[in-house]
Specification:
The structure holds four protein chains of four kinds. Chain A is an alpha/beta fold. Chain A has ten helices and 14 strands. Chain A is about 45% helix and about 15% strand. In chain A, strands 11-10-9-12-13-14 form a six-stranded parallel beta sheet, with helices on both faces. In chain A, strands 3, 4, 6, 7 and 8 form a five-stranded antiparallel beta sheet that branches. A three-stranded antiparallel beta sheet of chain A has the order 1-2-5, with no helix packed on it. Chain B has three domains: about 5-70, no CATH class; about 100-195, no CATH class; about 230-295, no CATH class. By secondary structure, chain B is mainly α. Chain B has helices at about 5-20, 25-65, 70-90, 120-130, 130-135, 150, 160-175, 200-230, 235-250, 250-255, 260-295, and strands spanning about 105-110, 115. The termini of chain B are close together. Chain B is extended and about 65 Å long. Chain C is an alpha/beta fold. In chain C, strand 2, helix 5 (about 110-125) and strand 3 form a beta-alpha-beta unit. In chain C, helix 1 runs antiparallel to helix 11 (about 265-300) and helix 4 (about 75-95) crosses helix 5 (about 110-125). Chain C starts with a helix and ends with a helix. Chain D contains six helices and no strands. Chain D has helices spanning about 5-20, 30-70, 90-95, 110-140, 150-170, 180-225. The model of chain D has no long low-confidence stretch (mean pLDDT about 90). Classes of the chains: A alpha/beta, B mainly alpha, C alpha/beta, D mainly alpha. Chains in contact: A-B, A-C, A-D, B-C, B-D, C-D. Chains A and B meet through helix 2, helix 4, helix 5, strand 11 and helix 6 of A and helix 2, helix 8 and helix 11 of B.
Chain lengths: ~425, ~300, ~300, ~230
């Protein structure tokens, strides 16, 4: 029924978008891949054989040149060749330096990396056994020179000077390319479905049992003449789950106004409280009952996690709400509240995207929205076409990722093309 | 205007926030840091006024209406005012104008000398690295040469006895900061050290309450396990069995004597748990992204409320 | 006939038993082993505790600095505090330079307490200055800077910008060990000890941007959520709750044979009895459920 | 028996018992503890906000900038938000003050301005973060490579993980009715989810018990002193 609905609506477009999305993902990721996987800053690179330099380069005033104690340097020891480059597509202030070591040659005890500042002084940057280093905290657009001393016991050999080199900040961080592509694909799908919704295409969404229960639960509160308690999560506005919860709050309040049930909404975050209060007040207004809004029904409780749980427990046992909603982000206080709610005999509907708290909601609540069902809820409850459009986009985004998973795995197994590094963000 | 201005502002800030992630320019990052670390925090601080206003209003209404259990609202209001008074005027650790550390100076005995400090913060500096940061100009005084001024209260008793007595008190009371006595090598706080700065309220009231609330979870969990873990259907059964095995795998006795429990637990964590969590995470990630876009594009306007 | 009615009420009664009866049983099962503890064998998990232990063991000579983000609060102290203590013991044994910070203010006291405890353990044993643990040379305590994202990102750029002074008010750049430590690039690992998703925040921001290893010490609650990250290699080892802490204590003590207090191990006997009690309760609950259902079925027939 | 004599230990012990008493039923002792807890927790957060945001970010810069102007006269430096002393922060303070407009009915809509820009910024930065940590990383981790198939059992399980992840995702697919071939797949997916939740539950038991043990150790050791 449903795939069919879409097919008759804008199927061709959708599938074309998905296919082009995958092609885009592959095509755009490829060129930027070296940035995504290269630059292992600490790994030693041993493949390039450095050319031997017989004479150490003399230092200058700040660090006097070492009198070369030739006899102690093991025979066959070669001098490192230093390669310095600006770290590509970063935020600047960093220069990456490598001095590959030939494995067939005698390995020095350690290297000393030195840097010449613009005022001509040489200073030691680090002493390391590795053959690469990333100098950080250098000013941008200032020229530096580098050299490396290889230490063999008391003796040392100094490399050629590399540079001048300067650190730069870059307009675009190519390492972030996979995200850009993913966002582009997602926005493309989103726009298509929103357009479809605007044109009035019927968008099917399957039944979500936890959400069908909302109506009955509020109806039950009406019959019992008891309030509805709504917990908008215990996180701040930065959490998207909180935003999703606030969207659901609007839908729940719409129904409580309709049934003339009292709502109680205690908050843990002052900003969330402000928004929640606005939502409740405006919903009362838009449903034509501005007078029925009780300013004392949405209130701020306390920012402390367990003090909040203690307060909510108190509300539960004293006001005995008939229905309790837990929507949003929860931590350990989830079970403290939901078990107390269960003991009072309330119908409880929970929804969170925190996998750690879901099992507790499942055991102590009557209905639980698992993970992204929370995000689907406001669209599902309101049935507003534009919101349903985004829900569809979310679904098809998921489909693309599923196809990617399978296709990439097949490519990796059958053709030994491991594309997974292209997905990594640097 | 009333709806669109906030929406435009939201959109502009969203574009800025989104773009600054992808731009590597130093100047952009500086502005972004300023916005995130300062300006938005300043804006957010004002919301707290609203929150507190709401809390106080809520309890005032309760008291005025003589709602059920209205008497307890006084407990909240009084404790709120007292604790914020202590905090605001005494500072987080009692180092501000309100002299909330009763008992005067803090003593530190070190290397055969006793130093006196105005407060713990000052002492912390000394403690951090004694060899470096002792500033003789500050209230640091070797004993017994000039005991007079700040320590005169202790002239009556021998200072050494005093220190030992305090050391034993402190040990029993579990006072945290360290003052090392050259005599006993034990902590040396004050004898009549009754500190009520806000940190003490935190440790004395918030910590026990919070940990006890948290600890109640153990009881709730057992009751949930007893009541809800029934093999009503396949899903509940699977949940039960998997929880059962993982719990067994947590017990050293069981892993030591029942073969295969540990491996099975590990398999559950590694295979089905991993797969499902991964699926949920991808789904939640997309759901979060979709919700964010809904808000940025103004499709979801619940936060604006209804009309107007 | 009356006999059957009797049986039915027993099963039903057992199923609908008052919560408070369960609470009392749980309390007893917990309290008795606290008063009369007993010893238990401990088996170390390879991928989690052992992996973290090995990572600390294999710390490179250069780069031997570790950032410990000690975000334990008093509520999760029983689980996280022993982890922090044994991690500190291990790093000090290995002479790894430790930078510690807290992302929340209420972690400061506990973090400082852990340092004081471990440092005095070492200094009481020490005979030479080399063996001592000295502030500024072997560890610094950076203190606290809100909100969490600021230090998490800021330490990747420049520590001194975020923390010009340490917790005790000293200039940070005057501390001897800080001459070679400027940002994440000079450290090998971040150990995030937290009860929430902070280790993931470190993965998402610090690791994603600066490529530093992240390891976690977490409460047993969040363990299952962290497995995907462990598998994808984003987390290098992990300590799982009180059990993991007990394992780590054991590993460190066996390796370095010190005789300090093993705090996590102390609680493990009460742990075991309570677990067994819960398991028995689950079995009992299900037996009652099935007997009752069978009874109903029989009566229905 | 070595009962504590310290005031704060007694205080903590009484509060602990007061809160535990809620397990029995709601009672005056719990109600006092709860209201006290809420009051002090708010007082504590006021203090923290004041000393961490209000003083260093609002009062100090303004006072310092005022001093600067008094000393050296007005210069554009006091308007630079990057300076420690500046008047620029009046701007975000004014925006923040719009929260207060909620008490003035006529312009109460202006409360949406600070809300809007806060939400805008935080929702936007959450998008790349969600893609990166939640989606792309997990996607990358679930791809099966040839190297992983080198050994039979580990290889087998990686494929099982991949298939189970797909099944879980199909369960959360809202656009189609779960019937036909999708039905068994999504059922399998939800089974995996339930096993995962069981695992989470089982793991959590230990954590919660640890906490209760911590409290009992406090009561019996630190307060009553019956355990050495």
């Amino acid at each position: 029924m449903t795939l069919h609905t879409i097919r008759t609506g804008s199927t061709g477009r959708v599938w074309r978008a998905i296919m082009s999305g995958i092609v885009c993902l592959l095509a755009v990721c490829m060129p930027c891949a070296p940035h995504a996987i290269g630059q292992d800053q600490q790994t030693s690179q041993t493949d390039a054989a450095p050319e031997p330099i017989t004479e150490p380069v003399a230092g200058d005033d700040a660090v006097p040149a070492e009198p070369a104690p030739v006899p102690t340097v093991p025979p066959g020891a070669t001098l490192p060749v230093v390669v310095a480059m600006d770290v590509p597509s970063d935020t600047g202030n960093a220069i990456s330096i490598r001095w590959p070591h030939d494995v067939s040659q005698a390995k020095p005890d350690a290297y000393i990396l030195e840097m010449q500042t613009p005022d001509g002084l040489w200073k030691q940057v680090t002493r390391t056994v590795l053959t690469s280093y990333q100098v950080s905290g250098v000013p941008n657009f200032t020229q530096f020179h580098f050299r490396v001393k290889a230490l063999y016991g008391e003796a040392s050999m100094t490399s050629d000077i590399a540079g001048p080199i300067e650190a730069r900040d870059h307009w675009f961080r190519t390492g972030k390319m996979p995200i850009v592509v993913a966002i582009a694909v997602f926005v493309l799908i989103l726009v298509m479905f929103i357009n479809a919704a605007r044109r009035g295409v019927e968008l099917f969404v399957r039944r979500i049992s936890g959400l069908n229960a909302v109506e009955d639960a509020i109806g039950r509160a009406t019959e019992m003449g008891k309030p509805v308690l709504y917990i908008p999560g215990t996180s701040s506005i930065e959490d998207v789950a909180t935003l999703a919860s606030l969207n659901i709050l609007g839908e729940v309040v719409r129904r409580t106004v309709h049934y003339d049930v009292k709502i109680i909404c205690p908050n843990r975050d002052p900003i969330v409280y402000t928004i929640a209060r606005e939502i409740v007040r405006e919903t009362y207004a838009s449903e034509g009952r501005p007078d029925a809004f009780d300013p004392n029904s949405v209130f701020f409780l306390v920012p402390d996690q367990f003090a909040y749980a203690a307060g909510v427990d108190g509300i539960m046992v004293r006001q005995k709400p008939a229905t309790i909603f837990f929507m949003g982000m929860f931590w350990a206080e989830a079970l403290v509240m939901s078990e107390t709610g269960a003991a009072t005999g309330a119908v409880q509907i929970a929804g969170t995207d925190t996998p750690a708290q879901l099992p507790f909601f499942i055991t102590s609540c009557d209905y639980t929205l698992i993970g992204e069902e929370l995000y689907a809820a406001s669209a599902y409850l309101s049935r507003e076409p534009l919101l349903l459009g985004t829900l569809k986009a979310q679904d098809y985004g998921k489909l693309i990722f599923m196809i990617c998973m399978v296709v990439f795995s097949i490519l990796a197994i059958v053709f030994n093309w491991d594309l997974s590094p292209y997905l990594l963000v640097k | 205007m009333k709806r669109n201005l906030p929406l435009y502002l939201l959109f502009i800030f969203a574009i800025w926030g989104g773009i600054s992630v992808f731009v590597g320019k130093e100047s952009v990052h500086e502005i972004d840091n300023l916005l995130r670390n300062k300006l938005l925090l300043i804006v957010g601080a004002f919301a707290i006024i609203l929150g507190l206003g709401s809390l106080i209003f809520h309890h005032m209404v309760k008291i005025r209406n003589k709602s059920r259990y209205w008497q307890y609202s006084y407990v909240t209001l009084v404790s709120l005012f007292i604790s914020s008074f202590i905090g605001l005027f005494g500072g987080v650790r009692g180092e501000k104008s309100l002299p909330t550390i009763f008992g005067g100076l803090v003593l530190l005995a070190h290397d055969g000398q006793v130093y006196a400090f105005q407060n713990e913060a000052e002492m912390g500096q000394f403690k951090a690295s004694p060899d470096k940061f002792v500033d003789p100009a500050r209230a640091v005084m070797p004993l017994p040469s000039n005991v007079e001024a700040p320590l005169s209260r202790y002239a009556a008793s021998s200072l050494r006895d005093e220190i030992e007595l305090r050391a034993s008190n402190a040990r029993r009371n579990g006072i945290q900061f360290e003052m090392i006595s050259p005599v006993t090598g034990k902590p040396v706080p004050f004898k009549k050290d009754f500190r009520i700065h806000i940190q003490q309220l935190f440790e004395g009231i918030l910590v026990p309450c919070g940990s006890t609330m948290f600890a109640m979870l153990a009881f709730y969990m057992c009751s949930a396990a007893y009541r809800a873990f029934r093999m009503r259907n396949l899903h509940a059964g699977v949940l039960l069995v998997s929880a059962f095995i993982v719990m067994l795998g947590q017990i050293p006795l069981a892993t030591a004597y029942i073969p295969g429990v540990y491996e099975l637990r590990q398999w559950i964590l590694d295979v089905p748990n991993m797969a499902s969590k991964r699926g949920i995470m991808i789904g939640v990630g997309l759901g979060a992204v979709a919700t964010s876009f809904k808000i940025i594009f103004g499709i979801e306007r619940a936060w604006l409320g209804g009309d107007e | 006939m009356s006999n059957r009615v009797e049986i039915q009420t027993v099963w039903q009664k057992m199923m609908g038993v008052d919560r408070r009866v369960i609470y009392v049983i749980v309390a007893l099962v917990m309290i008795i082993p606290i008063i009369f503890p007993f010893d238990l064998p401990i088996r170390v998990s390879e991928r989690t505790t052992q992996a973290l232990f090995d990572a600390v063991e294999k710390f490179p000579k250069e780069h031997n600095a570790m950032l410990i983000s000690a975000d334990l609060s008093p509520q999760d102290q029983p689980e996280l505090y022993p982890m922090l203590v044994s991690l500190l013991r291990h790093s000090f044994h290995r002479r790894i330079k430790v930078l510690a910070m807290c992302l929340y203010a209420n972690s400061l006291g506990l973090a400082e307490q852990a340092f004081n405890q471990v440092v005095s353990e070492f200094n009481n044993r020490a005979t030479t200055d080399e063996e001592r643990i000295i502030y500024g040379r072997d560890y610094v305590f950076l203190g606290w800077k809100p909100p969490p994202i600021v230090p998490i990102l800021g330490l990747g750029e420049n520590i001194f910008d975020v923390f010009p002074k340490d917790f005790y008010g000293n200039d940070l750049n005057l501390q001897p060990m800080m001459t070679n430590i400027k940002s994440y690039r000079d450290m090998d690992m971040i150990a995030s000890i937290a009860a929430n998703s902070l280790p993931i925040t470190y993965v998402a921001y610090a690791q994603a941007r600066y490529g530093i290893k992240v390891t976690a010490g977490v409460t047993a609650v969040s363990v299952a959520d962290f497995y995907p990250y462990l598998d994808s290699g984003q987390l290098t080892g992990m300590i799982e709750g009180m059990k993991g802490a007990a394992e780590y204590e054991k590993l460190v003590q066996e390796k370095f044979s010190d005789q300090e207090r093993r705090m996590a191990c102390e609680g493990m006997s009460a742990q075991s009895t309570t677990h067994i009690a819960i398991i028995l309760m689950v079995i009992l609950g299900n037996v009652c459920y099935f007997m009752q259902r069978r009874h109903e079925n029989r009566r229905g027939v | 028996m070595n009962i504590a004599t310290e005031f704060w230990t007694w205080n903590a012990a009484i509060l602990t018992i007061a809160i535990f008493s809620f397990l029995w039923r709601d009672n005056p002792l719990y109600r006092i503890a709860e209201h006290l807890y809420i009051g002090v927790a708010n007082g504590y957060s006021i203090t923290l906000t004041y000393f961490n945001v209000v003083v260093p970010m609002m009062i100090d810069p303004l006072v310092n900038a005022g001093k600067m102007v008094k000393q050296d006269g007005f210069s554009t430096a006091v308007l630079n938000p990057f300076n420690d002393a500046n008047f620029f922060i009046i701007l975000p303070m004014m925006v923040g003050a719009l929260y207060i407009t909620r008490f003035i009915p006529k312009i109460s809509w202006m409360v949406r301005i600070p809300i809007g820009l806060t939400m805008g910024y935080y929702t936007a930065i959450s998008i790349p973060a969600s893609f990166e940590a939640g989606i792309l990383r997990q996607l990358e981790a679930s791809i099966v490579t040839r190297a992983q198939l080198a050994e039979f059992w580990p290889g087998f399980w990686t494929i099982v993980i991949l298939l189970s992840t797909l099944a879980t995702l199909i369960y959360f697919f809202f656009s189609t009715e779960q019937k036909g071939v999708l039905r068994p797949i999504s059922n399998f997916g939800i089974l995996m989810v339930m096993i995962g939740f069981g695992a989470s539950f089982g793991l959590t038991v230990m954590a919660r018990i640890s906490l209760a043990i911590g409290r009992f150790i406090f009561l019996f050791k630190d307060w009553l002193g019956v355990v050495s």
